[in-house]
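Key idea: predict the complex, not the pieces.
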Amino acid sequence: MNKMKNENIKAIIQDWVPDLEFTEDSLEYVTVVVPRASLRHFLRKLRDDEQTKLDFMFCLTGVDYPKYLEVIYHLESTTLGLILVVKARTEDRGENAVLDTVSDLFRTAEFHEREVFDLLGVRFKGHPDLRRLFLTEDWVGHPLRKDYVDTVNIVKR
Amino acid sequence: MKTEELIINPQGKTEEYFINMGPQHPATHGVLRLLLTLDGEIVRKVDADLGYIHRSIEKMTEFDTYRQIVHLTDRMDYLSAHMNNEAVCLAVEKGLQIEVSDRVKVIRTIMTELTRLSSHQLWWGVIGMDTGALTTFMYAFRDREMINDIFEETCGARLTMNYFVPGGLMWDIHPNFQKRVKDFIKHFKTKLPEYDTLLSDNVIFRKRTEGIGILSKEDAISFGVTGPGARASGVRCDLRKKHPYSAYDRVEFKEILGTKGDTFERYRVRILEMWESMHIIEQLIDNIPEGEILEKTKAVIKLPKGEFYQRVETARGEFGANIISDGKKSPYRMKFRSPGFSNLSVIDHLAKGWKVADLVAIMATFDFVIPDIDR
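Result:
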């Protein structure tokens, strides 16, 4: 059942954009890497298109990799039961750690993007209120990055 | 009635001002700070300030083994401790590609439903307090105590159980377990109708909740609201039905759905869910199959490279454990999707235009556990 749905959504996306990169990270969900320039356009299409109707974002994860930061969007359709995982990568971990916001498409992303900004330092262009969420305003650095060293509070073990 | 309709003279508006609700406030049930923008008594904006109990559990997982991580998760939503443990266990089992025995599945399901009952009981006691009825708290704790005793006997703890481990259970159930659970169900079936007479049909309580804070179905989906809060708006989001795990595919129960989406509907859904939880336990308690309680796993678990996501239905909504593994004994990154975090994001949208006292009632029906939001 799930396998059929997965093949289904894969076929739809390949029909739209033939050269997107599918990863085999997850055995359960179809995972697709989207170029950051078309992220917003792609997610909007996934949400509004009759074939996909992925209207529910059930998770948004930020991950720190050596060369870039990655944001993983878990999407589900409340009507069709399809699930798709979309990944977007920033250009680098420094000045260009920027992605477009999707908080106007999925309102839940408003909080989630603030969390990712706070803990990983991805700046979401167009977010209405991009402030730190958990840490204080004067905190230096982003603790979930792999190279973060907290000498005062000893996070590293 | 919305307070805006009461304003007779539109020029007679007061000046907007800010007020702190929390971090120490009886209605936030934990260290949550809400910065309220008020116009008189009307809420204009709710700005949540989080992090007072942030313990960087996600960072800690990167240095812990998978067995240790299970122990961190019940410190998040401590009222859904079993469900949180289950999410990590199932995600790790997914990575190891092992299937636990039927016995484990059934025991896990009974345990999680007992947890849901005890969580909803506490919530019912607390919503009474939030709306000005102190008695409910005592009634709820009387019944909740029985579940805590059952947990104590089998798991060795009353709040942070750590009874589920990757591959099965820590140890087998106590010989008294089945009898005590049946005694509790028998007892609670006579007590749950009391909850209705005491609070559900109370005129003051009805006026405080009916028609207040209406959440539309579209907003519930867009804001990622899950659990009873979303089901009251008619969203079919019960993961026990949608993506069954453990023994939920072999039991019969109803997914309680509402239509109105107001505060009372969210209250009603939770009360009816307690009946369903008892129904699930009744079907399983006499039919616990024989079998292994622990599958063989290596002392230090290493997951293959990849991503393993597990969603479970806690008492508050959807909890997700996302393991991103690079093949080592600790995850490369682990994300917890907590129900309270997404449910909180809707509060600003919901409370706008209502009075401060309504905000308290709205918050009570979402049943926030702050360590679950902050992680």
